[in-house]
């Protein structure tokens, strides 16, 4: 492994640990983020010459701690900050079954005192380690807006003295919904990375989202949406190795080698879906999405997919989440049952709401292709390619466009 690859891997695996460790010690997200960034910058300078340390995480944490202390000294606030850090470090916490700094960090970033947009942006930055441009792409927002959200969120946490801890048992049910939203977005960024300069699939993000969701499920074993989200993640992650070809192109569901799917993850995901069905409680958004993925991963071949069941589940999902993206995905199931012309009529009605969403244009392009309307399909593919930030997806869309007849 080259030094560059080692630094990239360390950033993926250690960023959240370093930030969480510093946040626990110094009680300040600004200090934690800046010191962590400086530690990684130092690694870029020194590791090519000194070699990769035996324990990169420990090296980065130690270096970041020194950077943080140096900053406090430069600001001539060391005594006050040191006292504050000691209070943060030594103050008693409510009993918790977990001593996990990253779990503390995510609940801090997802505190209800923050707007949901701020929670998502802050968590993607502090826990996921994404850059501001990557977050802006993920949230379909401008870089300046994302930067302001993160800055204001950190300032509010400091001003309101929001505690760095896992909530008490009484507070967990009301706090978990916002955390699940953020974890789902973090998972999605790993599932299909938006940054053009990143790997198309980021296993570090999907793995971290799954890990934290498992922890939260242990805290709230009877919460159906926690279980549903974990099942959804597992059934999606099971297809990861089949989703990008050797040439770096995205592989659509109907073209994937199903023999390459992770049967262990599929079995676990199916078990969780069955567990929620047996509970006899009306399912929420994540449970329905998990059930849809269970149908897809139950089919040995695309032709064996029970599209009637998929559509029935989407009908149920629309009642829970009547968003245009859900309507778009429902139209894909409609195309399989009622034909592309019926589906296209639904998709076209979503244009005003989804005109900046690449998947809208990609779906429309495919439906037009199936109807033999090649010129219109090509124009839709052009728009999808223009909007797609993922390199593997761009390669796939470009090939599909170029296969159209003139």
From TrEMBL:
InterPro entries: DUF6596, RNA_pol_sigma-70_dom, RNA_pol_sigma70_r2, RNA_pol_sigma70_r4_t2, RNA_pol_sigma_r2, RNA_pol_sigma_r3/r4-like, TPR-like_helical_dom_sf, WH-like_DNA-bd_sf. Belongs to the sigma-70 factor family. ECF subfamily. The keyword Metal-binding does not apply. Residues 106-157 form the RNA polymerase sigma factor 70 region 4 type domain. GO terms for molecular function: DNA binding; sigma factor activity. Residues 17-77 form the RNA polymerase sigma-70 region domain. NCBIfam families: sigma70-ECF. It comes from Lentzea aerocolonigenes (Lechevalieria aerocolonigenes). The keyword Ribonucleoprotein does not apply. Residues 175-275 form the DUF6596 domain. Residues 74-96 are annotated as: Disordered. The lineage of its organism: Bacteria, Bacillati, Actinomycetota, Actinomycetes, Pseudonocardiales. This is RNA polymerase subunit sigma-24. Keywords: Sigma factor, Transcription, Transcription regulation. Residues 74-92 have a biased composition (Basic and acidic residues). GO terms for biological process: DNA-templated transcription initiation.
């Amino acid at each position: 492994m080259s030094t560059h690859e080692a630094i990239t891997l360390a950033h993926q695996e250690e960023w959240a640990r370093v930030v969480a460790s510093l946040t626990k010690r110094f009680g300040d997200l600004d200090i934690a983020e800046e010191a962590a960034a400086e530690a990684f910058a130092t690694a870029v300078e020194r590791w090519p010459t000194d070699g990769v340390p035996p324990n990169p995480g420990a090296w980065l944490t130690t270096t970041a701690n020194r950077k943080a202390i140096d900053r406090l000294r430069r600001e001539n606030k060391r005594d006050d900050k040191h006292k504050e850090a000691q209070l943060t470090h030594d103050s008693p916490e409510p009993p918790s079954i977990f001593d996990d700094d990253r779990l503390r960090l995510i609940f801090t970033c997802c505190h209800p005192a923050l707007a949901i947009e701020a929670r998502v942006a802050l968590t993607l930055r502090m826990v996921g380690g994404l850059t501001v441009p990557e977050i802006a792409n993920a949230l379909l927002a401008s870089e300046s807006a994302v930067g302001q959200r993160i800055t204001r969120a950190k300032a509010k946490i400091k001003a309101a003295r929001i505690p760095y801890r896992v909530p008490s048992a009484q507070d967990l049910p009301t706090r978990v919904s916002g955390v699940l939203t953020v974890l789902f977005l973090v998972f999605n960024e790993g599932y299909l990375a938006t940054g053009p300069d990143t790997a198309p699939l980021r296993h570090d993000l999907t793995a971290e989202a799954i890990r934290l969701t498992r922890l939260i499920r242990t805290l709230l074993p009877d919460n159906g949406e926690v279980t549903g989200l974990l099942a959804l993640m597992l059934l999606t992650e099971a297809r990861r190795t089949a989703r990008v070809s050797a040439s770096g192109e995205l592989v659509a569901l109907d073209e994937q080698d199903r023999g390459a799917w992770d049967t262990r993850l599929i079995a676990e995901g199916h078990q969780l879906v069955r567990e929620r069905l047996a509970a006899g409680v009306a399912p929420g958004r994540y449970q329905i999405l998990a059930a849809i993925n269970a149908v897809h991963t139950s089919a040995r071949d695309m032709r064996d997919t029970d599209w009637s069941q998929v559509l029935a589940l989407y009908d149920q999902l629309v009642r829970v989440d009547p968003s245009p993206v859900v309507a778009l995905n429902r139209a894909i199931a409609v195309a399989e049952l009622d034909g592309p012309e019926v589906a296209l009529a639904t998709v076209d009605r979503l244009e005003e709401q989804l005109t900046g969403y690449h998947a809208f244009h990609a779906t429309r392009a495919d439906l037009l292709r199936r109807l033999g309307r090649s010129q219109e399909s090509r124009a839709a593919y052009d728009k999808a390619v223009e909007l797609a930030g993922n390199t593997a997806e761009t390669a796939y869309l470009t090939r599909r466009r170029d296969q159209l007849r003139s």
